[in-house]
Fold this sequence. Notes:
Lyase, Ornithine Decarboxylase, Chain A, domain 1, TIM Barrel
Amino acid sequence: MVRSASAVREVPRQNEPTSGLPGLDRAFAYRGGVLTVEDVDLTAVAAAVGTPAYVYSEAALVGRYRLLADALAPLGAMVCYALKANSNQAVIATFARSGAGADVVSEGEMRRALAAGVPADRVVFAGVGKTRDELRAALAAGIMQVNVESEPELELLDAVAREMGRTAAVALRVNPDVDARTHAKISTGRKENKFGIDIALASAAAARAHALPGIAFKGFACHIGSQLTELAPFREAFARVAELVRTVRAQGIPVEHLDLGGGLGVRYGNEPLADVAGYAQAIRDTVAGLGCRLVVEPGRFLVAEAGLLLARVVYVKQGESRRFVIVDAAMNDLVRPAMYDAFHAVLPVREPPQGTTMAPVDLVGPICESSDTFARDRPMQEVSPGELVVFCTAGAYGAAMSSTYNSRPLVPEVLVRGDRFAVVRPRQAIETLLALDRLPPWHDEAQKPPGAANAARAQSS
């Protein structure tokens, strides 16, 4: 743990999540001309761990969780953090200690959640393609419920549960056919999406689940997409699920749980602030009166604005018609711009003076792909090689989606608390990366004299 170079002072822990900086929580601010995370100077982080590196604020994580949990407390809703947004165990543990459960979509995520201290009875296992082994692992762990997404999965889970002498608590994920009005690649609630059981077929599926001996049917789940900036799609989806609950109860089948998914959006650029109070009111107006135990599964909302990617300028290249700023971070570290054409604000670590001239640049990484481009024609102050910059709103789907493409090792993750910071995932060494590979035995045989391999096989036989 390292003390920052700047003066130490207490950072306000405010429920208002957004600072004056684009896409960053209030825990991030310029102080003394340098961008800080809580009370830690980012130049100190760069000196200690190098670049690129992900940096998260614990105060921002906790503040985001409390903002949502407090708004939903009168409804008795459980907040289960969606690990797919950021699966670092220090991040998970921060939420677990604040009272959150976990929404997981693989056995690996489930094991991460349990290892980070999330109680098994606060874990929900979702995902459209769970394997037999994953279902067995979920039942063995004793998690709260499995969100089943198809009738074949329901039948398999019943068989696995009976083989194990267990009963599987199940919510059926329904597809309400509601347009989330978000990016096509993160929309999950339309008929053409792969997720969930068509809502028109859900009452029959519930009857089947209720009848299966290895299944304890608990209720329904839905999740219509990510990065929603309007409340109307939530209201429409929740209302359709509420009507389904009434229909199924009229058939004599009890419904105890409702999992409402996640999806609350964040500010990458000029999006409106998430209306947390309005979201709680939408739940109150549509499903609160049903008397069900409620679960919500936020991911991006809790972590996106609580983290950034710290990078360093390597070169500035002036072409005939374009100016390129080349940084040491790349699409393998932050893939969202390449995958989704996503916008991430970019800020210098050294605060530019008022009135600094901005000029358009292409901000790119070192990977051998034209898609390794973070921004085109982005207005930016003049920077020089060696200067530090940050990519904002990078706490979600940044490190979690990173890879080792171009044999670039995974970058470190750093968690800040007050005037201290700790490396919560070390930078991967190239030697570690190479050690993951194995050469086949015939490569060794190829080094031996002609006929030696055949002689060795004959001798062994």
